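Intended use. Records like the one below are meant for learning the mapping from a protein sequence to its folded structure. Do not use them to infer anything beyond what is encoded.
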Amino acid sequence: MAGNGAGAPEPSASRTSQGTTAAVAAPGLGAASPSDARHGASVDSIDARGADGGTVTGDSIAGVTSAGDLHAAWERTAPSLESDAGTSRAMVSQAHAPNDAEGAAPSLSIDPALSAMSKPERGEDLVEAEAPESEPLPAEQLVVIPDRKNPGAELVLGPDGEPLEDTSLVLDDPSLEDEDDPETTVAGAADAGTEPVAVPYTPDAGSLRVRRSIAVRGAPRQDAPLLGTVAQDMRVQWKGETAVRGPECEAWVEIQPRGWVCERYLEPNFREPRVRDLPRLREGELTPGTYARVVGKRVRAYPSLALARAKRKGVLLKGSVTVKLRGQVRVGRRTFWRTADGQYLEARVLREYRPSTFVGVDAEAMSELSAPFAWAQSRKRPSAPVEVKVAPDASAARETVLPPRTLVAVRELSPDGRWVLIAEDHWVARDDLHVAWFTHAPPGVEPGERWFDVDLDAQVLVAYEGERPVYATLVSSGKPGTDTPEGLYRVWIKFAEADMTGNGTAGNDTYRVATVPWTMFFQDDYALHTAYWHDRFGEPMSHGCINLSPRDARALYGWAAPEVPTGWSMVNATADAPGSLVRIRGQARVVTPERKERKVRVASSGTTR
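Structure written out for the chain above:
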C-alpha cells in the first residue's frame, strides 16, 4: 500500500505516515519535547491548531473554536449505526484480571462449549492429559500439528475464542511437572515435611545458565504467584549469598531483577550474565523470522524429512494455517521447509507473508502535528488515493489526491458534518479520515501512568502517560460477528510469542496462526498483538483482538506495563506491578464499497425460434 506520497501534491498541513521524515518514522516512545505539553489536555481543552501553530476558528460550524467543540460537532453529526452491529460490555472502575492468572492459561469465553470444559487442579499435569476416547475431535475442529517432544499434547485454550499454545508457560512450570519425573520425585522426597530454611548459596561462577524455559515465582515456594517465564539459555545473576530450601526444591535461588527459580533448572556458568530481548530480531527484520500461509487442498505436514519425501504419516491440515519457517532443504527437484514446531512441508504449498512496514507516530512526531490530526484513508477503498475537494461538496472540483495514510490536520467540519477542512480550500470526506482524538484519562489513573485508548469507530489507538499522549497509530479491531468489546480493562499477561488458533465455532473460522509476536492480553481471550499477515490497518479485520503492525506492536509491548525483564518470554501482572489500562470505546464501522453495474452484452446467434 502506498505510503510515501511520491509524485502526489499535498496540502501544507499534511505529511505521510511512512515518509522519509525521521520524526514520523521513529517507532520509539521516548521522552517528548516541552512542546508536547499542548497534547496533554483533553478534547475539551485543546485548541485546534493550523500548520503555523495558530488557533483555527471555525466558519463552517458556528462556535467551533477549539478541538473540544470540533469533537462535539463530530459526535453530533456522526452517522447512526445499527444497534446490533457491535458487542458491548459494561464499563468498570477496575479492569478485570482472571482469578487464576497465576500460572494458568487465558480462559475461553467466546466458545461456550469449550468454556464449559473443566480446568485441571493446580499441580495436575496439563500436558500428558488425554481426552476420553468417547469424545472425538469435532469435525470442524482444527487438526493441530503435534509437538514432537510431547506427542499427544493438547493446546491450552486462549485468545480470540481459540486455544493458545505457549509451552514456556505450561510445560516448563515446575508445579506442572510430571509426577514420574525422577528428578522431581527425588527432590521432593528428600525434603518432605520440612519447613523452608535458608541455606548458603555461593556458586563459583560468573552467572547461572537457565537450562530450559522455566517459571519465575514471586516467593521461594511452589504455590507462590507466577511472575513470568525466563527463557532457556539466558545467563542470569543471582542475589545474595543464601538460597531457600523447601519441600519442593533443594534450593530456591533469587535471581535478578526479581523472582525465584528452583536450582535444578539452573547451572553455574563461568561467563558473565547475558540476557536478550525476546523475541530476537535480526538486523533489519520487522518480525522474528519468516512466516508463510499454507495453500492448496488436503495439504499434509510431516514429522521428519524422510517421511515427507515418502509422503507417509502426514497430518492433514484443515482451515487456514500459517507457519513459521526455520530452514529449507532441497532434495532432488523437491524443496522442503522445516517449520518452527519441527514439521516439514513442501515449498510449493507455502506462500510467504510480507509484513507491513506501517508505523504510527510517537511523541516527537506529534509535537509537530496539529491537534487533532487524522490519517487520510478511504473506508470504501483503503488502498486508493483520497480525493481532496476545493469545497465541501462531492460535485466540487478536485484539488489534489493524497496517498493512503497521509497525516493531515483536522480544522473544521462542514454544516452537514460530511466534510472536513484539512487546509485552506482543501476538503476531505469525513469517511476518508481516521481521527486521533485526545481525551481525558479514566478515573483513578495516576500521573504518568501508562494506558491505552482505542477508538473503534476511527480504528485508532492512542497511548498515554497520564494525560499526555505519547503514541498514536491505526489498528484493526474485530470484524462484524467477532466484534471487539467496549469496556475498561487491564493488561494481565504479556507473551513474547504465542500460537493462536480458531476452532470453527462461535462464528470463528478454522485457523492456526504461528508464533504471534508481542502479544498483550487485556480481557480473558482478547489481546493487543502483531498482525504480520495483513496490511489493512484502519479497517476491522480481526476475530476480536486489536491488530497492530509489527513496528507498533514491538514499541507498545516494550512500553506498556507490566515491564518485561530482558530475557523473559512471558510476564504476569501482579498487585504490585499492575498492567496498563486499556479503554475500548465506540463501535467499528464497515463501509461497503459501491458496486458499479456491469453491462452485459448478449450476442445474437442469428437463430429464430
